[in-house]
Fold these 2 entries.
Entry 1:
Amino acid sequence: MKKTTSGIIGPGRIAKRFAEAIKLVDEAELGAVASRAGSRAWNFAKIHGIPTAYDSYEAFAKDPALDVVYVATPHGYHAEHSILCLQHRKGVLCEKPMALNAQEVETMIHAAVTNQSFLMEGLWTHFLPLMREVTKLCKSGKIGTIKYIRSDFGTLFPFDPSSRLYNLRLGGGALLDIGVYPLYLCLHLLGEPENIVAAGRLSPTGSDESCHAILQWKDGQSAVVSCTLTCATSTTVEISGTEGMIRIPNRWFGCDQFEWRRTNGKTQHVQLEPMVNGFQYQIREVTSCLEKGLIESPSLPHTFSLLLSRALDTIRKQIGVRYEQEESAKVPS
Ligand SMILES: NC(=O)c1ccc[n+]([C@@H]2O[C@H](COP(=O)([O-])OP(=O)(O)OC[C@H]3O[C@@H](n4cnc5c(N)ncnc54)[C@H](OP(=O)(O)O)[C@@H]3O)[C@@H](O)[C@H]2O)c1
């Protein structure tokens, strides 16, 4: 069996987790890593047993040994680095959020289609056994018709203007970094909302330190999503239907259990396989798509990333966050 060979751009915090996860997938291996500094690439390669290291993203993108690249740089560079790899006919698994805005996501999809190269957003939560089971339960009608979703993600990251989380050039802000998870959940279960009303509070750099949104769908469903970098919040989910409710506990986005309460009073605790790393499920999806010669995942298609990025744009416009890159590009309008 030929293994799928992956490369990593940006050997930072999340790249480490990806490098550990790939060891859990028999059909995948790491072939190279690229850093803007050769020493960081070689150190990372040594720690994770990767055969090749590059001090240039451009040289890395040309490596013929690589089938797919994991783009693990800050979101302000997702589009640039993904397109570089797509143009060299590499598949791309791009960390969430896919890019800074919908216009960038469209450009990335265009590059994937033009070069017939695979592109998927690294929304690892979507591929967890948790989401598979929760989705199945919701689609089966066992909680009736979904009427309301409440979902949050809050964690304390003290203000630091140079950090990826607050620096606008790097794509700083709570919404794009962690708000993307509760928003993903709502759009995955209910599709495109008819209306979004949002409010947020900006940090001294102009990035959002907190953001809250109410979503409404034309059939009467609604959702409340919240995210903040200023304090830890319950970081839980409730999906309420006419015949029951699903409750996912703390750190729901990477959880291995949930509770299913029926309206008649019975509550079932559902325990899934214990969470180990969690990135291996999305890596298996990428490997399977590449084996089939696909350029997108049927489970998490390009249209979903576009939908998600448009909702993020709508919210961001209302709370008044604009990225430096958009000042010249004039998006979102
Ligand atoms: N799925 C998840 O659970 C999860 C969790 C955390 C983060 N993420 C996502 O992963 C991405 C990276 O997050 P991270 O926390 O790993 O970031 P990070 O450690 O701050 O940065 C990742 C790497 O990006 C490279 N980079 C390239 N251009 C850069 C620039 N202009 N400024 C700073 N670094 C630059 C750096 O590597 P070199 O300089 O060595 O090339 C750096 O080590 C983000 O988009 C984030 O949303 C996902």
Entry 2:
Amino acid sequence: VFAGVDVGGTKIEVAVVTAGMELVGVAQRPTNSTSPTHIVAGIADALTEACLVSHTAPLTVRRVGIGVPGQVDTAQGQVHLAVNLNLDHYPLAREVSTAFGVPCVLENDVRIAALGAWHYLWGRERHGRLAYFNLGTGISAGLVVDGNVMRGAHGMAGEIGHVVVEPNGELCACGLRGCLETVASGAAVTRQIEASGLMEILRGYGAETPRARYLYRAAQAGQPEAIALVRRVSRAIAMAIQWLVMAWDPQMVVLGGGLTRTGELFFAPVRAEMAVWRESSSLAATMLPDHKFALLPEAFNAGVWGAALLAMNDGSERQ
Ligand SMILES: [Zn+2]
């Protein structure tokens, strides 16, 4: 058996799966990020419980895959920086290996989710190309080729949150102006709701905080300012999808992350942008057909499934 661990900002989730990808045990712990030692203990506890639940002796776990929200060095098993977890140059893989007694591999959470999306769509299929596009607080993509996640020469493959979509746009934390993240991330949507005075309007749609779901509801109800902002966000997302498709030519593009949680309310305006391109472009019609895109369902835990797949693949990158 293999184990997948998803270390989130609020909880640690673990799944134990067989080599045939049958789920045999799960466990959960709250994330205590006050110190790295607490995080390691939380992971080891959850792993032990998931083994107990699945009647598996911990030492029969071949490998543990761990997904972390931040920059990781998979080869060294080190977390370079995970702000939400208070981890800075921390050898998480080694520490969990020592605490739990089983080899561990580490990967960034979006790349893990890309592997999870692969499993969701294609199961144990070994051939194909999938792009996973994560729209959360930040934006990045994960690319999986023949079941292996692409990291790139410097571990930056898929970091498309910092490609420029509005050359004279808002200043991004990275120093550039108009990055995709300044327009279409969950944080950017919140900021634009506040800056545009839309918050007062969204209260009429049940909003107490400037969350994207109320923006989408208001747009669906025909509120003009909400429609304008949704169009701006959706156009930037559609452009990014087109880049992913043209650069990587995947069979499927799967979207996930907090911003996508409103489902079709979120996705219909993005689809509409691409439908307009298809009308006038045979290239767009060929490369961006509607059936190439899917949303990851909220109920599917891409984090633990992806981490289990990583463990199974040994965490190595074969190209
Ligand atoms: Zn940027």
